[in-house]
Amino acid sequence: MSVIILLLIASISVAGLFLGAFIWSVKTGQYDDEESPSVRMLFDQQPPKK
Amino acid sequence: MSKDRLMPSTELACYHCGESCRNTDIQAHDKHFCCEGCKMVYEILNEHGMCTYYDLNSNPGQSQKITVRPDKFAFLEDTSIEQSLISFKDHQHTHISFYLPQMHCSSCLWLLEQLYKLSEGVVSCKVNFERKEADIVFDHRLMTLRQLAELLTGIGYEPYISYNDLGKRKPVTDRKKIFRLGVAGFCFANIMLMSFPEYLGIDDKEGQLLIFFRYLNLVLSLPVFFYSAGEFYTSAWNALRQKFLNIDAPIVLAIWVTFARSLYEVLTGTGSGYFDSMTGIVFFMLAGRVLQDRTHRQLNFDRDYTSYFPVAVTRINDDSSDTVTLPDIRLNDTLLIHNQELIPADGIITRGRALIDYSFVTGESLPVAKEMGEIVYAGGKQVGGNIEVLVIKEVAQSYLTRLWNKDLFKNESNQESSFVHGLSRWFTWVVFAVAIAAGAYWFWQDGSRSWNAITAVLIIACPCALLLSNTFTNGNILRILSRNHFYLRHATVIEKMADIDTIVFDKTGTLTAGTEMEVVYDGKPIAPEIRKKVATLAAQSTHPLSKGIAAWAGQTLKDPFLAFEEFPGKGIEGMVDGDLIALGSAVFITGKTQNDEASVVYLSVEGKLLGRFRFRNHYRQSVPMLLRQLQSRFHIAVVSGDNDGELLYLRKLLGQKSELYFNQQPEDKLEVLKSMQQEGRKVMMIGDGLNDSGALKQADVGVAITDNSNNFTPASDAIIEAGSLPNLYQLIRLCKLNQKIVMAAFIISILYNITGLYFAVQGTLSPMIAAILMPCSSISILLITFGLTNLSSKRLKLD
Questions:
Q1: Which CATH number is B134's domain given?
Q2: Which ipTM value was assigned to this complex?
Q3: Looking at beta carbons, which residues of chain A come within 8 Å of B175?
Q4: A39 contacts in B (CB within 8 Å)?
Q5: Interface touch A40/B128, C-beta < 8 Å
Q6: Do B1 and A50 touch (CB under 8 A)?
Q7: Mean pLDDT of the region B478-488
Q8: Residue B213 and residue B94 share a domain
């Protein structure tokens, strides 16, 4: 029985961690611009100068 | 840059902006450009090895034909202006955020974020694509703010800085609802998990565990009850204080009753409570609200004249000139207004010849010529040379500004009333009646079960189904509309759209396409050689009619032998390769006045009259079709600030019943709408300019039309992109369907509720059934609303 309680506490704290991550990501404005990050990652580093 | 791009066969497209090149001379590195401006941008980028810009997208640039005046950004050297624009400054770095409306593709993003390569002073640049803003950090020891603005302008991204930006702090985006939704989702999911043992009938031997689960649920429900549901408390309380019972009031009641009963059951050990239902309702309702409130971040529905006006203008003192911010303009100041600049305050022209484009302010389609000593009003745009204006009214007292300071613009629209509110009130009373009847019945039969029955009825029959179907339907309809480039300010506009029976159009810029003119030539045929010469001569003048002729005539001569003179207000005359050509008014060319219905320019070659050019407003292509479609269902009216030159054409287009008003001042437009509303009509106004702003505000639904949603639009309830105008009728139809869809979803969920009620009034509703019923009804509402809205948009042939 105590195993179940232990597991529950573990699972809720993991879920809580994700809730915290969600709040943090919203707070730091990661959803403010949903367009540019997807484009930005496709750019190569500076092409060599000719 | 070894890549050779194949040019399209017949027409040369500018390598930078993709416009066709009229002149084939402008070349650099085997690439053709339409103008010197585009070439210059290319050369800057090429010099810094940044031609990836052109590899990411073909012709990514913006046309640079309209050159920016060199000292346009001189006002940024003023420390007080700089102070109010920047967001942060330390001993080394300055942070500023510029609005760059030209941004439109991944090349733009790439180029702007590589800005540090173009200048040492730039430390970093981060682009927010949705808002079209660039957050730039620069080293103010190496470059000034003005140099930064000029650098951006140099590569084709001129920052848009308006009067409205002065001292404005960035609005803090309200994320409270999202956090509340997150917390509610977390608690809801965990409570569901903890409730499973109970649903599935946990062994009695595990009593300890059972109690543990119940208390855990209780603890998890607290954040939802106190934090997430706060959204509904504040809304209900605000409405109640205004003696108005909105839909949130019965919902708050249901949440409280559920919580109280659950608390009682858990504390007395008589049951497990309904925490799962309560958190589930809050979660779904918040999700619906978030969906419905998703605003169009890149759009601004509250713009007033301040975001149309420049930050500062040049003031001429006795022997020097300086820049002065708009609020600091005083009476009797002399202002220097450059070509393409706005006149910020009413004044008298003291030097130069003004040609003022009032199309945005009054709706007149043609620029007005003003001589020295005449009064010019704020809001007009000078086209042509520089002029000097003596201020006779300060900015705040000017003609245009006064319109805004009227009461109409101060009182915000009152309580939003929706059919949902009325329905929910009625629904609430029915539920109360059922609850009391059930309670009374059980009071006589079996007193212990009466309390049980009342609370069960209140829990199961809360009008959250109605709210859910409403918010989800609204949210999805808003999404469909914006996919069709029709952006509503708020979900309540949908219902107002459904009610309208009269549509009022502005003419200039709404039915007609902005500055475009249709040129019709009648007269003797023009030989190709002469046509080139006409084009060459017409290209010399900045007068809009002359520009129109130049565009009509097409190709100019390459190296003409040219001598010409422009006669203000009359015409232009000149020798082009040996031919004497004159363009101008009837008096100027023929010596006699003519009775012409619209703007006409006469052409003579070697003193002989050849023909005349007629100018007509260019109606948007879709307009005749659209008007025919709308005519049968709505009253159509046109209210224009322009003259009645197009009366006959519009009459033909709109039929005899239509109401046409011309020469309407901004106030007149407002009055026209008011009188229509007094007849009990629901009016939708579609307009584009500042002169429509009063009418847009007065209308039940004010729609601003724009060719580009990043441009300035006056305050309105909705913004439509010009390209979507043909779909207007379908869009209105979709809004009309909104109410039906809400009702359908609501009725289906009521059926669930009745099933629930059947058990609840008997006092035998098991937690198991309640637990299953709740999320099921929520999810089915969700599916029904999404399905129905998408289906109807498809049937209306919308995107």
A1: 3.30.70.100
A2: 0.86
A3: 26-27
A4: 106, 109, 129
A5: no
A6: yes
A7: 87
A8: no
